[in-house]
Amino acid sequence: xxxxxxxxxxxxxxxxxxxxxxxxxxxxxxxxxxxxxxxxxxxxxxxxxxxxxxxxxxxxxxxxxxxxxxxxxxxxxxxxxxxxxxxxxxxxxxxxxxxxxxxxxxxxxxxxxxxxxxxxxxxxxxxxxxxxxxxxxxxxxxxxxxxxxxxxxxxxxxxxxxxxxxxxxxxxxxxxxxxxxxxxxxxxxxxxxxxxxxxxxxxxxxxxxxxxxxxxxxxxxxxxxxxxxxxxxxxxxxxxxxxxxxxxxxxxxxxxxxxxxxxxxxxxxxxxxxxxxxxxxxxxxxxxxxxxxxxxxxxxxxxxxxxxxxxxxxxxxxxxxxxxxxxxxxxxxxxxxxxxxxxxxxxxxxxxxxxxxxxxxxxxxxxxxxxxxxxxxxxxxxxxxxxxxxxxxxxxxxxxxxxxxxxxxxxxxx
Length: 414
Prior knowledge:
Blueprint: E1 6-14, E2 19-28, E3 31-36, E4 46-49, E5 54-57, E6 59-64, H1 73-77, H2 81-97, E7 100-105, H3 111-118, E8 126-129, E9 133-135, E10 163-165, H4 169-181, E11 187-190, H5 209-221, E12 226-232, H6 233-241, E13 246-252, H7 255-264, E14 267-269, H8 272-282, H9 289-292, H10 295-299, H11 302-312, H12 332-338, H13 343-349, H14 352-358, E15 375-378, E16 398-401, E17 404-408, E18 412-413
Parallel strand pairs: 1-4, 1-5, 6-7, 7-8, 9-10, 11-12, 12-13, 13-14
Antiparallel strand pairs: 1-2, 2-3, 4-18, 5-15, 15-16, 16-17
Helix pairs in contact: 4-5, 6-7, 7-11
């Protein structure tokens, strides 16, 4: 079925690089076909009078786990695949309703979910995946407790598990190649201790340098990159020196390491909202006590990490890293970052910087001729009030993905 073209009239365009008023945008065949400062003639188009509202690119979240249907990731890993799939569908529908039209899953989602979205079996954001995150034994994706000696391989191919274990250079190469075979478009590794895992303190370094370099080489051979779970300054410096491009979290980074990131062209993906959500609700939602005890190790230092990264000139993408029922806080990251960073930089984190990290510069995260028609219309000025991007999409009368309306509460005319 051929969809009619859509013309947005009297809109303010805002994508982090553009801020223009009284603009007209025509969408056709799923793409932005024309942008003008004058009325666009198209007799067959559906016309939307924006009334001066703000037209933005669809938002991008670069750190999600769509299969994390509960806070206790160990329990989540052992759920039946069908339950996880239905839970993931609900999580992704919620993301789309908040205006997130693209997300990067950094551990858990499989290519079957990508296909389900493409075939229209479920609704959700465009899904960019790494497959299962790679972890060493006892690392951040090893969710077995100290008395659980079941074979880790039992969980490798379950939809609810976030990662897979690999030890030694050859095992790491095989795991990276296997995830790429299964449809991963980048590789994610766990290179530091974590909150959600039971046996590794935050400060623990994970994988040897030889293992890190081998995984980076496999990614580069496939013309892609490696993303790494990293908290401590020591772990970040080590991983960036080994060629890691995407630094997740970075809560405990120091200025010299931030400068190293800038020099090497690395991008940071902070996730401040998850620590606030875990602090307030983690225990009540089933986060194990060992994990609850580690939250403040990274939460308290989070705001300072943004200042350090900004001062060093490190690009920062938008990320949330939420689990289970806490996914509803996804948009609150805007407000948290806005207390520390200029609003326009926060918006760029979820538009142009995020698109660059994903490898889709000019395709998403912008309002430009030829880009995907992923668009949201916002009541008011997000530069003056980032909270307009929160509220479960209540301030977004229109959400469009690939030229199709996901939501449209404004009257249209022909």
